[in-house]
Structures are given as C-alpha cells and as structure tokens.
# Entry
Amino acid sequence: MDELSKKLADLVEGGLFPNAITFITQVVSTLILFYFLKKLVWKPMEEFMAKRSSIIVNELESAKKARLEAEEMKLAYESEIKNAKNEALEILENARIQANQTKEQIISDAQREAEYKLELANKQIASERAKVEKELKSHVVDIAFSAAEKVLSEKIDDGKNRQLIDKFINEIGE
# Structure
C-alpha cells in the first residue's frame, strides 16, 4: 500500500492537473472542430431533416386525401349500388304492371272477339230464322192457294168449308 500512496502522491504533484498550454490548445481546437462541424455537417443535416420532415408531412397529407377520396368513392359506389337496386326493382315493377296490362288487353280482346262472334252468330240465326219464316210463309201461301183451289173447284157447304179449314190448319201445324 505504500507503493500505491507514493504513486498517487506523484500523480497529484506532477500530473493530475493539466498543463495550461495543452489545456487551452485542446479547448481552442475543440471549439474550431465544433465550428466546422456546425458549418459543414449541422446545416446540411438540418436541411436534410427539414426535407425529410416535409416529405413525411406531404406523404401523410396525400395518404389522408387518398383515404378521404376512397371513402367518398366508397359512398358513391354504395349510392350507385343502391340506385341500381332501386332501378332494378322499378324495372321489375314496370314489367309486372306491363304484363298485367297485356294480360288485361288480351282478355279484353278475347271478350270483344267472343262478343263479335256471338253477335255474328245471332245475326246468322236471325237471318236463317227469317229465311225459314219466309220459306214457311211461301209454303203456307202455296198451301193456301192449294186449299183455295180445292174450295173453288168443289162447291161445298158451310160444314165442309170448316172441315177443310181445320184440315188446312192441322197441315200447317205439322
């Protein structure tokens, strides 16, 4: 331990406190080093950091704008999809209405055609009836002429005339 205390005493006497010239030289050289570092390294580094910061801010702003645009596009697409669904429903409803109208038109046309055919058939029946009545009248006239000929050709009394008229009426009824 003695040795250690001797070495410490030597150090304190001669070497613990720096030499003033060396100390001042080191301080001046350190200040010069800091000055050149500030001029050569610090300013470019600040500029680089400012550029990098502005780039990051710009990228964040563009990302925010892109997100907002994406949300707007999403809303627009959702709106378009909703409109498309509404249009599809409207088209289906219009098709259903048009189908019902077409059905009603077809039914109406069929009823009119049936009524027309029924009316035509009734006219034909009336025409045939008139024709048959005309033929019947013609036959009745013929029979009446025949009966009148018989009556005129024979002189008959009142009873015989009644008999002939009854016979004539029976022939007409058959």
User: Anything to note?
Assistant: DSSP finds three helices and no strands in the chain. Residues 47 and 53 are 10 Å apart (CA to CA).
